Amino acid sequence: LPAIEAALEPFEPRPHWGKLFDFEGVDVSDRFERFPGFKRLAHLYDPTGKFSNRFLRRIGVHA
After folding, report:
1. pLDDT of residue 16
2. 18 — phi, psi (to 5°)?
3. Residue 42 and residue 58: Cα distance in Å, rounded?
4. Which residue ranges make up each domain of the chain?
5. How far apart are alpha carbons 50 and 42 in whole angstroms?
6. Closest by alpha carbon to 43, among 54, 34, 51, 32?
7. Is residue 44 pLDDT above 80, yes or no?
8. CB 47 within 8 A of CB 41
9. Whole-prediction pTM value?
10. What is the pLDDT of residues 1-43, one digit of tens each?
């Protein structure tokens, strides 16, 4: 997976949220222009991270 992502990097791909990908949080933030708004809403409606999961923590939505 990392080799495929590296080969596609020149095209600045946006990962599908329901598929496997190896991008880190900073990369996801760079690819989705509305990601900061999503993070704000996640913290507004789930301030304690009750409904968070490993994926959301990995991409930086919750600590």
Report:
1. 85
2. -90, 5
3. 14
4. 28-63
5. 11
6. 51
7. yes
8. no
9. 0.72
10. 889 988 988 998 888 888 888 877 667 888 899 999 999 999 9
Amino acid in the structure at residue 32: F
Q: In a 10 Å sphere around its CB, with 0-12 CB exposed, 13-18 middle and 19+ buried, how is residue 55 labelled?
A: exposed
- Yes or no: say if 16 and 1 are a contact pair by the CB < 8 Å rule: no
One-letter amino acid identity for 58? R
Which comes out higher in pLDDT, residue 28 or 45? 45
What is the four-CA torsion angle of 53, 55, 61, 63, rounded to 10 degrees? 60
Q: What's the chain look like in SS3?
A: CHHHHHHHHHHCCCCCCCCCCCCCHHHHHHHCCCHHHHHHHHHHHCCCCCCCCHHHHHCCCCC
